[in-house]
């Protein structure tokens, strides 16, 4: 009986790796047989929310400022390449381009009289960066960072404000995320990022400077197709 039991245990131990391979739940994918080391294209969409701080300064040292809530939706495409440098450590580079309606809306009043509704819109958002992560079975956990680019336009009652259309912005984006491999060529992704475009001068004439400072949080989900 002991001989039969021992033989059964050995047989089970030999077949477990094969079964694990079949269902895609190995403890760690190898460098050459994992779904991560390859280029990919992805589709993502999500929601963003943050603050837009407006400030005005004059040559006499006077200054006023105020903050507005900044939020909306975004959606876009990603291109990237990942490489597993050891059994579990992954590094990669990627770029993405999003269209957004992330915006702030506020009524502009002078002396108690409403002049109109001012809107500041983030029309598009692009990020070029890198990430580093750890794979665990079908999961990838990672941190990411990169340069962020955006175009902000301002309107009053839907009418463009001259000189404040598609102002290019430069900042940074950092965050964390996770991906789940649903097969060799597809992964589901959920990601958080914080983006900061820092202070930008909207107007600077006659000793008066009007600036804004835009930062926001964004949560996205999507799918990556690897090939």
From TrEMBL:
One GO cellular component term: cell outer membrane
Domain of life: Bacteria
Domain Outer membrane protein beta-barrel: 10-227
Cleavable signal peptide: 1-20
Alphabetized InterPro entries for the sequence: Autotransporte_beta_dom_sf, Beta-barrel_OMP, OMP-like
Gene3D superfamilies, per the entry: 2.40.160.20
Pfam hit, one: OMP_b-brl
Keywords (A to Z) from UniProt: Cell outer membrane, Membrane, Signal
Subcellular compartments: Cell outer membrane
Protein name: Outer membrane protein beta-barrel domain-containing protein
Organism: Pelagibacterium lentulum
